[in-house]
Amino acid sequence: MTPTTEQGVIEAIQAAHDASEPLAIAGRNSKQGLLRPVQAARTLSTAGLTGITLYSPSELIISARAGTTLAEIEAEVAARGQHLVAEPPDFTALFGQVQPQTIGGIVASNLSGPRRIAWGAMRDHVMGVRAVNGTGESIRSGGRVLKNVTGLDLCKLLTGSHGTLAVLTEITLKVAPAPEQRATLVLRNLAPEQAVAALSAALGSPYAVSGATHLPAAQASFIPGLGPTPATLIRLEDFAPSIAYRSERLRTDLAPFGPVEILDDAQSRLAWTAIRDCAPFAGMQGAIWRVSVRPSRGPQVAATLEQAFGAAWFLDWGGGLVWIAGPATTEAHNAVAAAAQAHGGTHTLFRAPETLLAAVAVIPPEPAALATIAARVKAAFDPRGILNPGRMRAGE
Amino acid sequence: MLPQPAPKPDILARRDEIVAGLRALLPDDAVIGDALRLKPYETDGLSAYREVPLAVALPSTTEQVAAIMEFCHREGVRVVPRGAGTSLSGGALPMADSVVLGLMRMNRITEIDYADRLAVVQAGVTNIGITQAVAGQGFFYAPDPSSQLACMIGGNVNMNSGGAHCLRYGVTANNLLGLKLVTVEGEILEIGGAHLDSAGYDWLGLLTGSEGQLAIVTEVTVRILRAAEGARAMLAAFRSNEVAGACVDSIIGSGIIPVALEFMDRPAIHACEAFANAGYPLDAEAMLIIEVEGSTEEQDFLLDRLKAICAQHDPISLKVSTSAEESLAIWKGRKGAFGAVGRISPDYMCMDGTIPTSQLPHVLRRIGEMSADYNLQVANIFHAGDGNLHPLIMFDANDPSSFAKAEKFGADILTLCVEVGGCLTGEHGVGVEKRDLMNVQFTEIELDQQRRIKSAFDPGWLLNANKVFPLKGLAAE
Questions:
Q1: Which of A264, B191, B443, B470 is the most buried (most CB within 10 A)?
Q2: pLDDT digits (tens, 9 = 90+) for A110-159
Q3: CB under 8 Å to B386, separation ≥6 — which residues?
Q4: Per the CB < 8 Å rule, is B456 touching A373?
Q5: CB hemisphere CA count around A303 (13 angstroms)
Q6: CA pseudo-torsion sign B408, B413, B419, B424
């Protein structure tokens, strides 16, 4: 089913609710392989809900129906010198898909790019949503203003809920002026702990660093302009005079970590797009995980998994996001989950064959008291459990 | 005055037993049961509303909070969490049959980690206390509500507090990593942690701004940021609200996001100038305070661009600060705005709607008309970058009709905010004050959706039950 109006979504969900019939929720399927496969005879797609409904550059606000492609929205705001702050990634290549992703999909999965470390996640920039819950009721939360604490914040709850609570039909995002210029400082051949120390020094500087990544040699070779040596990247984005000034200050501050190369604006764009989209793993077979931990723990998680199953890895978010690739086995998955837990973080089995996705906990289980609340919250939106059942956890 | 829910008679009748039950759980000095010492807890920053609670409990640890919640849940006693009691929306107003759970003794900072840029603080640490603890290393905690000297982080989390600098640094929700919570049943839960973006539902996002409806926050992991090298302000005065509003549009459209962009209308300029002698232009209809950050050269670069933009809007005056002292003077009047209005009026009510910034001239014109109709003065202060409007309505609390009129005027302003595409509250929260206006912004279906989420956390509606939702919620429990 691909309704073209919210009313169509309402009717489809009401019918499924009345029949207690599960629905798989999709946009254009670019992230179909994410998390667990949904067992449902019918799919409700938001791909027919298209179009930008409001764009007010001076109010830093854009609204679009859920099935609008991200590319359309990005082009619209770029034409006015603005951008989406959370730098949403494009994982179509990673998932072997060809269809462009939709704004509904990127919000429903709360995926953010390298800028997340400095400027927040997708969920931080969702100012308003319209959605249809599991009984077919239309609900709104937030609005089209930047500051709003009226009532419970369902924008954040629905962002990243993977269509399991309600189907997003329209989204309002905060946008920001795109930077006039970018530059990237590159340090070479640092051991992972040293690299994260350098990233911490940069992120703890007054120079508004907006990207902080470390790639071992094998992964660095996939990033335009780097080549096969370990590379530690620090991004600046601002007005041109600030870029010039801050690059030099950081070069001085980071001197203890070695000499600094600088990637210019064009090189920076290419390099950070590749990092954003996880280009190093796009051509790789097997499974891919993301582990989010305290930044200083990133290297330990990586070392543990390298030892456990020869994991390929790289670090984003100052060390706090560990991208991992390895064999699609339960043993490897359990090692990832254990490492994340040991360091107080969280794991996501990001891409894997369906057999593995269905067999393991793709995200960590919740403690019992929270799981009880979660089940009641799910029922508060979707009492018959028809929306994307089992997408995030088995039996939910 | 809004009606309050009826107290449960059986709870009132068992007061002594409940106080004794609390005393069995806590040290002697951590339970207040006598009328005289309960009095200070009867109200908060919305002082027109008062209700003496049944008892006050002052735990020092999360485990004590859990014991109190387990007890209150078992006994069916309502609980009202309280930090410093600075809420402007009545968020900490007790009910006669409630135990006030005061978190001010939980005031320790348990961890500061500069490399990972975070601090773990108990709920009763003041907002400014976090910044003071990390300022020595050049760091700060970004959200800066006006009450930051007194207000506590637990309250900030529950209200999703903002401040004058959220255009650049975001509100509380954007600056948190983790929470330690106690559920209504007395279970201790940890959500988030020292990492970003936990997998699963965004409990951190849902809890932030939940106004004590869902759980008790006892500990918070916040992000700390390295402060910019410096900051400087400029002041631009204009002939009309329309022109000042157009200038705000031009600034945002130019690609500059100032760290602060504050708007004051004529009555606000006059009140603040009389109070602070900040050198504000008294012939202006509207004034902007614009602040930028960076090195001195970066500040110069941005201020030059801003000056050029302002100059295109026929300003009455432009004053760019040349020193930290001058910046301080420019801010002095704005930061003293509440005191300034308090000086010219016996009482005032601080409203807190948000509007699309393009609607500012229209909204100020309508507020001016209402001010004449109600015969009550109003001064407007506006976080212009993010659309958060603070009309200060002046009235005389000794005159009940004046208070009633001011409440009605306030409700009319907030209704107008919603009508033009905005919302009832940008940073103060719904609390008691705006509870019965929720129907203006939300449909009954939407409110029921929110009520069901509250029920998922708090099936018996024991937590802060007189707030946020129109009273139907309690009747329907």
A1: B191
A2: 999 999 999 999 999 999 999 999 999 999 999 999 999 999 999 999 99
A3: A145, A146, A147, B162, B166, B167, B354, B357, B426
A4: yes
A5: 10
A6: negative
Q: Where in chain A is the domain with CATH 3.30.70.2190?
A: 181-276
Of B189, B229, B450, the CB nearest to A206: B229
- Nearest neighbour of A144 by CB, restricted to B421, B453, B459: B421
CA distances from B134 to B171, B223, B240, B274, B379 (A): 19, 11, 42, 36, 36
Q: Is the ipTM of this complex over 0.85?
A: yes
Of A145, A160, A393, nearest to B356 by CB-CB distance is A145
**d(C-alpha A46, C-alpha A57), whole Å:** 26
CATH number, domain at B43?
3.30.43.10
Residue B287 and residue B236 in contact, taking contact as beta carbons nearer than 8 Å = yes
> What's the DSSP call for residue B173?
G
Q: What are the two backbone dihedrals, phi and then psi, of residue B187, each rounded to the nearest 5 degrees? A: -85, 140
Identify which of A121, A392, A393 has the shortest CB distance to residue B197: A121
Which chain B residues are within 8 Å of A363, Cβ to Cβ?
199-200
A238-279 pLDDT, tens digit per residue, is 999 999 999 999 999 999 999 999 999 999 999 999 999 999
Torsion of CA B454, B459, B463, B464, to 10 degrees: 60
**What is the least distance, in Å, from the CA of A323 to any CA of chain B?**
14
Which tokens belong to A74?
């990005």
Q: What is the rounded distance in angstroms from the CA atom of residue A196 to the CA atom of residue B409? A: 55
Beta strands A126-133 and A138-142 are: antiparallel
Contacts of A59 in chain B (CB under 8 A): 252, 356-358, 387
Q: Which helix (H) or strand (E) holds A170?
A: strand A166-177
Chain A contact present for B247, CB below 8 A? no
The mean pLDDT value of chain A amounts to 97
pTM score > 0.95 for this model? yes
Which residues are CB-contacts of B455 (< 8 A; sequence separation ≥ 6)? A376, A380, B461, B477
Q: Running along chain B, 477 residues long, what does each successive block of 10 average in pLDDT?
A: 88 97 97 96 94 98 98 98 96 97 98 98 98 98 93 97 91 98 98 96 98 98 97 96 93 93 95 90 96 96 97 96 88 86 90 94 95 96 92 92 94 97 97 96 97 98 95 54
The CATH number, out of the four listed (3.30.300.30, 3.40.718.10, 3.30.465.10, 3.40.630.30), of the domain defined by the range A6-177: 3.30.465.10
Size of interface A-B (CB pairs under 8 A): 252
Enumerate the H helices of B228-353 as residue ranges: 241-253, 266-276, 296-311, 324-335, 337-344
CATH number assigned to the domain comprising residue B207: 3.30.465.10
Show which of residues 172-191 on chain A sit within 8 Å of chain B, judged by CB atoms.
176-178, 180
Q: Which of B60, B88, B105 is the last residue of a domain?
A: B105
For residue B116, being part of any structural domain is answered with yes
As a whole number of angstroms, the distance between CA B411 and CA B434 comes to: 8
Contacts of A160 in chain B (CB under 8 A): 197, 201-202
Going by C-alpha positions, the residue among B47, B97, B32 that lies closest to residue B461 is: B97
